[in-house]
């Protein structure tokens, strides 16, 4: 059984698509927790209509941690709100997670787009997380599994990190438990950020942020001007 945790802020356009994908899953043993950062649109109403548990959110790390605090199952799944996946995503992922006796895991991601640049950028990212999974774990918030004991062991997501808090999270998970990238389940990501800011610009920011983390440590300032679309709770 798993607890699915989704941080949100004004996601009325994307959240219904994700919740619809979850509802169609062959695997049914889950709860859904939406950690909402005071959305001004219909996000909370949509979550309530779909039977989700709603908790207060904030920046993504805050929302994920708050969701984990109210989770009742032993495996946590952190998802971004703008994802989609096929009906066997959970069944395949949980099966592989248990078969490999994992404590934490990430997923390969694909773009919800036929644009060749999108496919190249995501291909590079997937190659990166595959190559580093054994010694320097990386994974996107577009699909992170973690056992609750491990989440507590590492004190959850670091809320002081401005960018790539998901990468830091799985890196720390890998120090205390077995981490791998799941091969049998993929999530598909909306390209809204790439379309709004420009593909090459966003791709360059992500590349530079990865290099920054390697040489200087975690990113705790807005040095890369990466708009997370969230606002901090007061």
Task: Considering the chains and any ligands shown, give keywords for the structure.
about 230 residues, disordered C terminus, alpha/beta, about 40% helix, globular, Spore Coat Polysaccharide Biosynthesis Protein SpsA, Chain A, 9 helices, eight-stranded mixed beta sheet
Describe this structure in words.
- By secondary structure, the chain is an alpha/beta fold.
- It has one domain: Spore Coat Polysaccharide Biosynthesis Protein SpsA, Chain A (Alpha-Beta Complex).
- About 40% of the residues lie in helices and about 20% in strands.
- An eight-stranded mixed β-sheet has the order 3-2-1-4-7-6-8-5, sandwiched between helices.
- Helix 1 links the parallel strand 1 and strand 2.
- The longest helix is centred in the C-terminal third of the chain and has 18 residues.
- The protein starts with a strand and ends in an 18-residue tail after the last helix.
Write a compact overview of the structure shown:
The chain is built from nine helices and eight strands. The protein has 234 residues and is an alpha/beta fold. It has one domain: Spore Coat Polysaccharide Biosynthesis Protein SpsA, Chain A (Alpha-Beta Complex).
Q: Briefly note the CATH topology name.
A: Spore Coat Polysaccharide Biosynthesis Protein SpsA, Chain A
Termini separation: 34 Å
Instruction: State the CATH architecture.
Output: Alpha-Beta Complex
On the 0 to 100 scale, the average pLDDT is 93
Helix content: 40-55%
Number of helices in the DSSP assignment: 9
The CATH fourth-level homologous superfamily: Spore Coat Polysaccharide Biosynthesis Protein SpsA, Chain A
Number of domains: 1
The secondary structure category is: alpha/beta
Number of strands: 8
Question: Uncertain regions: pLDDT < 50 for 5+ in a row?
Answer: 230-234
- Helix/strand order, N-terminal first: EHEHEHEEHEHEHHEHH
Read across the widest sheet, the strand sequence of neighbours is 3-2-1-4-7-6-8-5
Under CATH at level 1, the class stands as Alpha Beta
Strand % is: 15-25%
Sheet of most strands = 8 strands, mixed
Tertiary shape: globular
Taking all Cα atoms into account, the compactness measure Rg is 16 Å
